[in-house]
Design brief:
Strand order of the largest sheet: 1-2
Structural class: mainly alpha
Shape: globular
Order of helices and strands: HEHEH
Number of helices: 3
Helix content: 40-55%
Radius of gyration: 12 Å
Number of strands: 2
Length: about 70
């Protein structure tokens, strides 16, 4: 999610996680779906930005698109 309790943002969390693993795949899922929000997520390094409500099939398709099939 992008706006977290305590004022944290998903963008900031991703930046911290990327310090440990620069190639970490990430998908933003948020109620904020304006084009500016989507652009900010992509600029922050998220591979996709999904807007809530989002169904499981859409999440699964996004994961597959980002990380590819595993097996």
């Amino acid at each position: 999610d992008l706006r977290l309790e305590g004022g944290a943002t998903g963008h900031a969390v991703l930046a911290r996680l990327r310090q440990e693993d620069p190639a970490l795949p990430a998908i933003a899922i948020s109620a904020y779906g304006a084009q500016a929000d989507i652009d900010a997520s992509l600029a922050a390094g998220f591979a996709r930005h999904l807007t809530k409500p989002v169904d499981a099939a859409t999440v699964a398709a996004a994961i597959l698109a980002v990380v590819g099939p595993r097996g």
